[in-house]
Amino acid sequence: MELVMGACYLSGAYIYAAAVPEKWKPGRFDLWLSSHNIFHVLVVMGAYVHYRAALVLLAWRDHHGCEADVDMLHGWYVDGGVLGKWMPAGAFAGGNGGEL
Q1: What does the domain layout of the chain look like in residue ranges?
Q2: What is the pTM assigned to this prediction?
């Protein structure tokens, strides 16, 4: 999905920068189908693909869980990490004193 998203963004930027329809027939594409309009359509398509990819990743995370994130963040928040200095005692992991 990321390749489709990138293709939408890059092709929209290329069409806008190259002014493709306008340079072939000047004056004909001033209102409809100008490179600026095509650029906007492709950017919206890329954003939609990005949104759908995020939904796929969230569904995967809901299905498989996220233990790696808890292990990674434990050092930051509980074990005297940088962010743990400003958190109240017992704030991490539901207030059980920092134990997972």
Answers
A1: 1-65, 66-100
A2: 0.58
